[in-house]
Design brief:
741 residues; alpha/beta; Rossmann fold; 4 domains; 8-stranded mixed sheet; 7-stranded mixed sheet; 15 strands
């Protein structure tokens, strides 16, 4: 994509985080397309602000900065900003308007909640894990070394980006700032703050510097607004592919300025935690997996699980493997013997990619043999090893997506005398790399489009979870938080007539599109109820930052129940709309499913199911809306089936992987066990005409074995919140008011 230039003027509005209008939208509205060649500007210094683009290779911003004549000083900059690395904001912006928030009574706590009590709303260090911080430092060290080899250097700043950038701009009288396009909500807010700081400051040159926003897109498109959100249509357009840029030759850094040095891992962790006080720390809820907590809880009440101990990903224990092997690899591509993420800079990552692609060829190099061992350990499903090994490097921008794509396709051509077969690639590693890169690019384009135009009823924000892009929305500024969780095959748009109505009654409403659904990313991983429960946990902790009323429909209700059961301090109450799951009066055995490799049969079943859903979606949905079939309109049908197509190559990348999970779903954890573990207030809203459930029998079991549960029966089907939204909204608002009294 062409470079995007942004001119800042003194007449622009202030874009602080507490501004009532979305700073992201103001920023994007002023973008204009500029030439992809040299930027015409006087030879004032240029700052290249690195964030998630820690490389010199295939870096359009760096290439443009050095391309102008006469040559200007170029200052590479990296800022350790807590808001980017750790999401350490004290309060979300809406709470700045709520001085009485701290006086709210704490939610009722019971059982496990007493052990995991949290102080919600205080500073918390989330975002990058310790592993990612270590990989970040490796990447920065390599970038700094590469820049020094050209008599340049990487300037290191610590603190808020707007302060660091403004100080540097004033010191060197910079006229240009090059920075990569971002889609994450919190990072876009940081960019907006930098923009605001510059536009409201005075400069000796008279004008603030020009910000040039760039991207290294795999596809050559002109305007993200014009991109189709249908993957089928997108493929039909056959956009040209961009080729990666060679690393530019940099001018020597002949400016007397303190460049700074990289911190150690412990120093960085200390810096990120500086704003925390001992009494304001969160108890680390995210430190233990859902499976571990569940197994421990069941063992304490003498309930057998019938599950052998295994890693959370269903793979082998890499720590045990390497402890047993006792090998130490010279020039290893990994931070430790037990790690599975490629570390270092572009050169190491390219070498690792070459080793990965040549997995079937064998090698005598010890470092390549080590990587091949890691491939076998992380291949929990076909192609899954690529994202495990290279995902962090791609997230940090150590290597670009289009460089990986180019190198992979070139390897395929070399293997086949310059020929690319229309029937598929010649090795599974080539297939895995190409599929992963094209999938990542597709969901990044969807995320980018959602930031420049509103599709649906509510503005979409992007949150990155474990490297994957998740869509969510937030409506309302004050009041109790409510989190809406959709069912299988749906998205946050399924709450189209609930979000605004509940927010209008004095609530802050959050709705999320779960990983694997809607326009959230669909990575090649093993999906399970426990995975999604951990996603909800992290979303509440990292994004909402206070306990929520958990509202879930269908499988979303079951996931909410698991979340409330395992981390009860995160839920003010539990509201289930025709939830999945069952009541088991006397349980002494709960078989927890293993998260292992899926069979070829489930893969075939998934593809057949995709074809069936495509052809019958409208009719099936009308059966789920028995009292108001007119609610099954085109937007609903399009949203439900957008991820499937009659051509198996053109549905959303990863859709078949998610559908496969249907055949391995484990709903064996009884709802009554989950309710007891939660210990809080629970409302069941049941559409009695649900074709998927024997509603009368289900309600009878609830009344007999779950005495503390409140039940409301409605004349509706499987999705009462969308079939009769007014009735459900009234019930929810009344419940939230009563439980908060």
């Amino acid at each position: 994509m062409a470079l995007l230039a942004l001119r800042l003027g003194h007449h622009h509005h202030h874009l602080g985080l507490s501004a009532p209008r979305d700073p992201r939208r103001l920023l994007r509205r002023r973008l204009v397309v500029a030439s992809s060649g040299a930027v015409k500007a006087p030879a004032a210094a240029a700052v290249v602000w690195f964030k998630h683009d820690l490389r010199v290779d295939d870096h359009p911003g760096l290439a443009a900065a050095v391309a102008a004549e006469p040559r200007r000083p170029v200052l590479p900059l990296y800022v350790f900003d807590r808001r980017i690395l750790a999401d350490a904001s004290k309060w979300r912006e809406q709470l700045l308007f709520s001085p009485n928030f701290l006086r709210r009574p704490a939610p009722p706590l019971s059982g496990m909640c007493q052990i995991m009590k949290v102080l919600i709303g205080m500073d918390e260090i989330k975002g990058y894990s310790d592993t990612m911080l270590e990989l970040l430092l490796f990447a920065l060290e390599d970038l700094k070394m590469v820049l020094k080899s050209q008599e340049s250097d990487l300037l290191i700043g610590l603190g808020n980006a707007e302060d660091v950038v403004l100080k540097l701009v004033n010191e060197v009288q910079a006229g240009l700032i090059f920075t990569e396009e971002e889609v994450e909500y919190r990072v876009r807010n940081v960019l907006a703050s930098v923009e605001s700081s510059l536009s409201n400051s005075s400069f000796l040159s008279g004008n603030p510097p020009e910000i040039v926003v760039w991207s290294a897109s795999l596809y050559d498109y002109k305007n993200p607004r014009e991109l189709s959100t249908s993957h089928n249509q997108f493929l039909k357009e056959k956009l040209p592919m961009n080729t990666p840029l060679a690393a530019p030759s940099l001018p020597a850094l002949n400016i007397e300025i303190e460049t700074g040095s990289l911190p150690t891992l412990e120093e960085l962790k200390g810096f990120l935690k500086e704003s925390r006080t001992s009494e304001n720390n969160w108890v680390p809820l995210k430190g233990t997996s859902a499976r571990s907590i569940l197994k421990k809880t069941l063992s304490q009440i003498n309930v057998k699980t019938g599950v052998a101990s295994s890693g959370s990903d269903g793979g082998e224990d890499t720590t045990a493997y390497y402890a047993m092997s006792g090998r130490k690899i010279q020039n290893s591509m990994f931070t430790s013997e037990s790690s599975t993420e490629v570390r270092g800079g572009t050169e190491i990552t390219l070498d690792a990619l070459a080793a990965y692609l040549k997995y079937l060829e064998g090698t005598g190099k010890a470092s390549w043999q080590e990587l091949h061992d890691k491939v076998r350990l992380t291949e929990t499903r076909d192609g899954a090893s690529f994202c495990t090994l290279f995902g962090p490097a791609l997230q940090l921008g150590v290597i670009s997506k289009r460089r990986v794509y180019h190198e992979t396709i070139q390897y395929e051509r070399d293997r086949n005398a310059g020929f690319i077969s229309p029937f598929g690639y010649s090795t599974p590693t080539v297939t895995a790399a190409v599929d992963a890169i094209c999938s990542m690019e597709w969901y990044w384009l969807l995320a980018l489009k959602s930031q420049v135009c509103i599709e649906g009823n509510y503005p979409v924000r992007i949150w990155r979870w474990k490297g994957h892009l998740i869509q969510y929305t937030s409506v309302g500024h004050e009041g109790p938080s409510v989190l809406l969780v959709h069912g299988f095959g749906a998205s946050l748009q399924h709450f189209r007539d609930n979000i605004g109505a509940i927010a209008d009654q004095g609530c802050q409403v959050w709705a999320i599109t779960l990983l694997g659904f809607g326009k959230s990313e669909k990575p090649n991983i093993n999906y399970s109820e426990l995975l999604w429960s951990e996603l909800l946990r992290d979303f509440i902790v990292d994004v909402v930052k206070e306990p929520v009323h958990l509202v879930g429909n269908s499988i979303g209700g079951y996931i909410c129940s698991i979340t409330a059961s395992l981390w009860p301090s995160l839920a003010r109450s539990l509201i289930l709309l025709n939830t999945a799951g069952s009541v088991v009066p006397s349980y002494s055995f709960i078989p927890l499913s293993e998260e292992g490799r899926t069979s070829w049969l489930s893969s075939l079943q998934a593809r057949l199911l995709l074809l069936f859903l495509r052809s019958r979606a409208g009719g099936i949905l009308k059966e789920y809306y028995p009292t108001r079939t007119e609610r099954v309109d085109k937007p609903l049908v399009d949203e439900i089936i957008r991820a499937v197509s009659s051509d198996h190559k053109s549905y959303d990348p990863g859709a078949a992987t998610v559908i496969e999970s249907i055949f391995s779903f484990n709903l064996s954890i009884p709802l009554n066990f989950l309710f007891d573990s939660f210990g809080g207030k629970i409302l069941i809203v049941q559409g009695m005409k649900d074709p998927l459930t024997k509603s009368k029998s289900f309600v009878s079991m609830l009344r007999e074995h779950c005495s503390k549960v409140h039940i409301r029966e409605l004349d509706a089907g499987h999705a009462p919140h969308d079939e009769v939204p007014d009735e459900v909204n009234s019930l929810l608002c009344e419940w939230i008011k009563e439980t908060g009294a």
